[in-house]
Amino acid sequence: MKKVYVGMGTDLIHHGHINIIEKARELGEVTVGLLSDEAVTKYSRMPFLSFDERRRILENIKGVTAVIPQEKLDYEENLRKLKPDYVVHGDDWMTGPQKTVRDRVIKILSEWGGELIEPEYTQGISSTGLRSAMKEIGTTPDVRRRMLRRLIEAKSIVRVLEAHNGISGLIVEETKVEVENELREFDAMWVSSLTDSTAKGKPDTEYVDRTSRFQTINDILDVTTKPIILDGDTGGMIEHFAMQVRNLERLGVSAVVIEDKSGLKRNSLFGTEVEQQLDSIENFCEKISTGKKSQVTQDFMIFARLESLIAGMGQEDALKRAKAYIEAGADGIMIHSRHMDGAEIKEFMKAYQSFDFKVPVISVPSSYNQFTEDELSELGFNIVIYANHLLRSAFPAMKKTAETILENKRSLEADKYCMSIKEILSILPN
Ligand code: SPV
Ligand code: MG
What we know:
Elements: E1 3-8, H1 15-27, E2 29-35, H2 37-40, H3 51-59, E3 64-70, H4 76-82, E4 86-88, H5 99-110, E5 115-117, H6 127-137, H7 141-154, E6 158-162, H8 166-174, E7 176-179, E8 182-185, E9 188-191, H9 193-199, H10 210-223, E10 228-231, H11 238-251, E11 255-259, H12 281-294, E12 301-306, H13 314-327, E13 332-335, H14 343-352, E14 361-363, H15 373-379, E15 383-386, H16 389-408, H17 421-427
Parallel strand pairs: 1-2, 1-4, 2-3, 4-5, 6-9, 6-15, 9-10, 10-11, 11-12, 12-13, 13-14, 14-15
Antiparallel strand pairs: 7-8
Helix pairs in contact: 8-10, 11-12, 12-13
This protein binds sulfopyruvate (SPV) and magnesium ion (MG).
């Protein structure tokens, strides 16, 4: 019997996949190389279904003899292991982000006379189409909540952009670019206290209360499927925080970040221009562990945000606190800094590498924004949050339009700063 290898990143199975498997079956014994979450996210969005769920489905398809993981987008490792006579793949990868993968498959197969068979792509159905149909229905809190942990595991750095209402949520959800043979998009949303407050014209001092913040989250949940990290400010009173954690879990929020400040919270980007009062280590640790104890699922995460550098307390204080918060049960930490050169961030991350027990680390490079995602990942960060950029870019555009109408006593001249009515209608659901 000839050996046939089929690499697949399947999420929702459809008859296009079955056509490929049937073709492969005619050629010999079929091994499916199921692309890991990590491999899939190199060319597409994170699948809705987990790797194990995807494997179970494939194992139960007639004609599939074995399902093995394909850890990378590149086929080399499995091809060398199996030395198949055939690789079968739909002919839709001849152009686009997967072209280089295809070229390498052909080259490697030629070493032992193997052949690439490319059945015609099944028209009228595609995973992308199914995905948008899925999106129409929405997602469940369980699927969305666990997505962040899967992304942290699968990606060298998880890319997060701020959303402060439904429309900015839609931008994070939908925006895609194809660059350097890679399909790039945002992985998750940050519901920032700064931009949620600013959008309401209110100060970022925890004045916008929880009921209002939850309404913003709901508006975003309504129209998106990507995971949410909530800026939980100080988390408030310990007893209230415990209830908030369960509330967020129920909604399908993946993580909350709470900062170790006390008193009237002031935005970190003020630095020491205003009084920044830090919480005691003991109290903040208790807040973290109470939050962790109150959660119901395994998936929800609590990140402890270190404000030592913002408050001018120095590295040692930041490192001491990081250790304590991790011990108290924090699933991750956020180290914040407003220095432009990034030196103190580098110093912190260097010292952090020697911790015996490490957790994922978030970077918010609003000030040190010269660092690329690759560089941040190199420093040891697992998540990058662009914390306020959609709101900051929307405001000047709105101001310019308002001024132009005043200058001209009509809106004709302002039209060039606006998207068309047709466009705005087309981005809204239905
Ligand atoms: C936010 O986005 O609200 C934050 C980050 O907390 S920062 O504004 O930099 O403090
Ligand atoms: Mg904030």
